[in-house]
Amino acid sequence: MKATVWISTSLLLVFVAATFMPKECAAQSNAVVMSRPAGKKGHLREPDPPVVDAALNADQEASTEQLAARSESDAFETLTEDRFVVDEAYLNKAVFRAYKQRQGQGVALAVEHLKRRAPGAKKRFHVARKVFEVFPDAASETLPALYNTADVTTKANIIRVSGKIADERIRTLLVSALNDRTPLDEEEENPELADFPPLRLCDLAYNQLVLRYRVRGPLRAIGFAHRVAARDANIEILKGKLSVPETLYHATGDE
Predict the structure, then answer these.
(1) Which residue has the higher pLDDT, 235 or 24?
(2) Tell me, what DSSP letter sits at residue 74?
(3) Which of 167, 191, 218, 255 could in theory staple to 140 by disulfide, Cβ–Cβ 3.0 to 4.6 A?
(4) What whole-number distance in Å separates Cα of residue 12 and Cα of residue 226?
(5) Residue 154: which residues within 8 A CB-CB, separation 6 or more?
(6) The whole model's pTM is what?
(7) Can you tell me the distance from the alpha carbon of 105 to that of 102, in angstroms, rounded to the nearest whole number?
(8) How far apart are CA 217 and CA 247, in angstroms?
(9) CB 117 within 8 A of CB 153
(10) Per DSSP, what are the bridge partners of residue 249?
(11) DSSP state, 135?
């Protein structure tokens, strides 16, 4: 009986407190909830630009400084040497110093390596990608316009280099490409792929967006072996996640 009376009294006190709480106290209580920071989950987290000021040894520092005095093409060819290609910090700084005073020319030169039948020389393609990443503003002024008038091969290569270019214009390009089902014609370079459905521009865009935002989803990358129906299903899943950014990321501290 005493327990019942105590419970009833407690409930009554709670009711009275809630009913007659001063309005300013109630407002403060709500403000605590409403002012909670939204964090990064509510936004698409764009890639970080490459670090271009890493500490290098004396010989490396000297070699990067020398690149600025060379012509655009000579500097580019030097950057394809193994000593740069295998060392990302070295390559980032070298690209920055080679083209920081002539970014437009550096990007224009890099673009020429996207207009081939296939990436071909992997080192040159890698350096071209790095030029775009180190100078995202200059790249983003050039690549979307080129994409609109390019052939399928060039469009495919633009998509391939765009995953880590930190600019909203590039994000727009990739998201738009998710709707482009134009197939790539790569069987001539890779006859062993003739029995598989060709990759499409939308498939490449999917792969780059997953890389760009480290998306949590069923497929980490679309490849030749995936059926077209499976590809399309995953592309639609990604579109949905892009429209609700908090569903994109891994719940392992990446946010």
Answers:
(1) 235
(2) H
(3) 167
(4) 64
(5) 114, 115, 146, 147
(6) 0.77
(7) 5
(8) 9
(9) yes
(10) 215
(11) S
